[in-house]
Structure formats: C-alpha cells, structure tokens
Design goal:
This is VWA domain-containing protein. The chain is α/β, with parallel strands linked by helices. The protein is built from 13 helices and twelve strands. The chain has one domain. The strands form four sheets. Strands 4-3-2-7-11-12 form a six-stranded mixed beta sheet, sandwiched between helices. Strand 11, helix 9 and strand 12 form a beta-alpha-beta unit. Helix 10 crosses helix 11 and helix 11 packs antiparallel against helix 12. The protein is globular, with a radius of gyration of 19 Å.
C-alpha cells in the first residue's frame, strides 16, 4: 500500500464536498450505530490479514512507516475527529519541512476486547488521502470497560507480528508507533481474543513486556497521555506507562494538539529540528498558537533526553515466532 501521493488540496476538497452534501465525516460510524448492526468496515478488518505493509515504490523510494493507534472509548472518542481535522497539518510538516521522507501512515482504533463489539480496527499504511478515508471508516463505538483498562496490548500484538515495513527490513531504520489513551493495558495478550479478531491460533497468552519488546525492535514506540481525559490525573495509570516506556510517555494537556505533538516527536527523534524550530514550522503550517504551545510543552523533557534515530545496520524479522520466545509472566 502507500503508492499514491499526499495532496492537501485534494484532502481539503474532499472535506468541502462532504460538507456541501451534508455528509458527516464519520458517516460509516453513524450508519452502523443507527442501524444497530455492528460491523467493522472491510478496510479495517484484521481477520485473516497476514501483514499491513509499508513498502518502497517508484513514487516513494524511501518509505517510512508511522502507526497511530488510539483508544476511541469514553472521553477518548474525540481523538479520531481531531486527527481527521488536523491531518493536513501533520502531513505538511512531515513532508514539506522534511522531517521524514516518504511517510506512510497507518491509523487504527481499539477499545476493550472483554466487552466491546469492535475492539480492534486497523487500516493500511498510506501515503495519500486514502489515510483520511481509513480514518473516517472507523466505527466510534465509545463504550469501554470502565475498569481503567483497555486492550492496548492487541494493537501492539498486531504491530509486532502483522506489519512489514521496508524502512526496517531494507535500511535498518525503525518506524514510528504512537499509542494514544488514558488507561492501562491488560497484563497479557489473550490468545482467545487474538483468534477472534485476527485469526492467529497462539499456543499460549503473550505477556505485555514481551509484545512491547517485539514492537520496540522495529518501531520508536510512544504513548501519548491526554491529561484532559477522564483518567488524565490518575497517578497509578501515569506510573504504569512511565514504568514501561520511560521518556517515551508524552503527557499532553489538550488532546486537540495530538497531531502537532506527533509531528514534533518525529522531528525531534530524526534530529531534524529543535523545539523552537518545530514550533515555527507548525505555525507556518497553520497550527494555532495554543496547539503549538501545548505540543512544545509536552515534549520539553523528551527534547532534552531523547536518543536520535539511528540506522541499526541489522534487522530482526518477527515472522515465525515459536513458543520458546513467548514470555508468560503477568505484570
């Protein structure tokens, strides 16, 4: 996937036409909810998927994979709408300002697999306006379990074992993965849930530390924690993610600045900018002063402690995991 080119003009024109036709940006979600027949959009269904691929092409010879996976339950339900509205800003700074060559973005949403109908929806890696289409196909179920947990481990499992990215396989450069939410993950990947949603028949459950380790082999993994969400001031949840990801946990005062924050995090990791330069780039891309201030404040600590992205020189294929690689410890 990812063979087309991004066009801000095409993105804006599509939004204008939807508005003129009186069509909601998330029309599929609205139709699904009103019908009462809960069905995942075919473009986001992972059952039987071998890989979501980020591949080089003539149009994109140096593809770089970016995964953005968000909790869409409860107070987090506004995140997909924020991305849909701010996608142009994100792509502008990545492409025009050169933070990342040939970015291919995959969007996905998740909820709580213990109770939600559609707890895992993941699109393709895309370079053009198709990423906006994938985003708008997400069903905003909005339920969740109400127990301070959501199924973060399931999108992590999919990233670890069902994505294939040329930036890593050909060049030894990690992709980027951003998880966005305000609750804790479950302590292990449940094998029954994996079979239900993806189709894999695992011999046993996989511990959360194990699956995060697998993701980190190929991705710069970040967790974005909006502090204005329902659990934004729960220190237990903050500590949960700090203990797992350290400086790669980004505390964000306002979820409406999430696109700007992702752009800056990538630019900083690539050593393409410092915070002041990033703020100037965002301003030129049309971001509001408030969004810029929130994003730069969220990344102050990371900017001073980060490790710059490096080519590793080797890659570690994640296909054909055997039982001996699976860690059964519970957190």
């Amino acid at each position: 996937m990812g063979s087309t080119n991004w066009s801000t003009d095409a993105y804006k024109e599509a939004a204008r036409l939807r508005k003129a036709a009186g069509m909601n940006d998330f029309a599929y979600s609205d139709a699904t909810r009103s019908s009462g027949r809960w069905s995942i959009h075919p473009t986001l269904d992972l059952k039987g998927v071998t890989f979501r691929e980020s591949r080089d092409s003539d149009a994109h010879p140096q593809a770089n994979a970016v995964s953005v996976l968000f909790d869409e339950t409860g107070s987090m339900g506004n995140i997909p709408r924020v991305f849909q509205q701010r996608l142009g800003t994100l792509m502008h700074v990545l492409l025009i300002k050169g933070y990342l060559q040939d970015p291919q973005i995959l969007f996905g949403a998740f909820g709580d697999a213990t109770c939600d109908r559609l707890p895992l929806q993941v699109g393709q890696f895309e370079s053009g306006v198709e990423m906006d289409e994938n985003l708008r196909n997400i069903v905003l179920e909005g339920n969740g379990g109400g127990n301070c947990h959501e199924s973060y481990e399931l999108p992590l499992y999919f990233l670890a074992r069902h994505t294939a990215i040329d930036c890593w396989e050909k060049r030894g450069r990690k992709g980027y993965a951003f998880l966005i939410g305000d609750e804790m993950a479950y302590p292990f990947v449940n094998k029954q849930q994996v079979e239900w949603l993806i189709g894999d028949k695992l011999p046993e459950d996989v511990s959360l530390p194990q699956i995060i380790s697998e993701v980190q082999q190929r991705y710069h993994l970040f967790f974005i924690f909006p502090l204005n969400a329902n659990h934004g001031h729960d220190e237990r949840i903050k500590d949960f993610w700090r203990n797992i990801l350290g400086q790669h946990v980004i505390f964000l005062d306002d979820e409406n600045s999430v696109s700007e924050t992702i752009a800056l995090a990538i630019g900083l990791t690539e050593d393409a900018i410092n915070l002041a330069e990033g703020a100037e780039d965002l301003s030129k891309a049309g971001a509001s002063e408030q969004a810029i201030n929130v994003a730069t404040r969220a990344l102050e600590v990371y900017a001073h402690t980060k490790q710059v992205a490096r080519v590793t020189g080797t890659n570690l294929p994640l296909q054909n995991f055997s039982a001996e690689h699976i860690n059964h410890e519970r957190l």
